[in-house]
Sequence to fold (314 residues):
Amino acid sequence: MYDVAVIGSGVTGYASAMYAARLDLSVAVIGEIDGGTITLTDDVANYPGFIQLTGKELAEKIKAHALDYPTYIEQGIVMDVFRTEDNFFYVITEDKTFFARSLIFATGMKERELEVPGHDKFKNRGVSYCALCNAPLFKGKVVAVIGGSDSAAKEALLLAKYCKKVYIIYRREKIRPEPVNARRIEKEPKIEVITKTNITEIIGDDRVTGVRLDNPHNGSNLLSLDGVFVAIGGIPHSELAKKLGVKTNEKGEIMIDRTSKTNVEGVFAAGDVVDSIFKQAITGVAEGVHAAYQAYLYVNEHEFIMSCRQEEAF
Fold:
C-alpha cells in the first residue's frame, strides 16, 4: 500500500514524487518513458537555476532528487486504474498491481499527428516527430518543420545546425515562439518561414521528396524536401483519469483548480495533461508540487476519518 501513486515518469511526475516523499508519504512512480518527452529536447534555457542544459540532464537531476528519498520507481505501461468501495486505488501495469490511497496523474501528452495523405506511408521514411533524434540523418539536406509554436522553433533551430535549408510552415499569419527563439530564427540564414500555408500532401518514392501546399510559395504549390518534421502540439493522455470520473475539457485535458485538485476526491493532476494554458517544464513541476501537497493533506485527513470509523466500530 502506497500513500501516493504517481502515474507518469517525466519531470512533473518525479517532482511530485520528490515532494510527496519529502512529506513522509510512501510513493510509487509508474511511467513508460523515463524522464518524459523533455528528454527529446536538446536545449533547455528557461528552467530557473540552470542557465542551459539538455532536457535529459534536467530530467535526471529531478529524478535523482526524488530518489534521494525512499521513492519506488517502476518503468511500465499503466493498463488500468480503478477505485475500491473503501476509496483506495488500484493501478495495474502489464505485470504488477499497485495499491494506493491517492493518485497523481502526470501522464503528459502524445504528439498530434499530421493528418494528410502520405503521412503514414512516409512516417520514419522522411517524416519525423523528433529533431533531436533524427537531425543528423538529414545533414546537408532540405527539410521543413510543420507548426508555429516555440517547440517548432526549437526544432528548426536544431535542424539548422545540420541541414542546408529549413522551412517553417505554419497555417496562421505569424509564428509564436518565445522572443529569444524568434530572434534566433530571424538571425539564422538557413531558416525560412512560410505562413498562411498548410501542407495538403506528402509525396515521394521510397522516401519523402516534397510536399504539396494549399498556398503557392515562389509561384509553386510543390515544395521539394528531403524531410518533414511535425510539431503541431499534442493530445493529452487522460483516458485513465476519465475512467475514474475525472472531468476533462473539450481538448481532453484534465481540469484542475489552482492547487492541482480534480473533481474526484483523492485524485490530482499536473503537467501537460492538465488544462493549464502555459505548458512548460517549470509549470508542470510547480503543479506537481501542488498535487503532492494536496495528496499529503488528503491522505492525512483520510487516515483520520478511517481511524474514527474504526473507533466507532468498537
Summary: The first helix runs from residue 11 to 22. The longest strand covers residues 208-217. The chain has two domains: 2-111+234-313, 119-230. The CA atoms of residues 14 and 62 lie 6 Å apart.
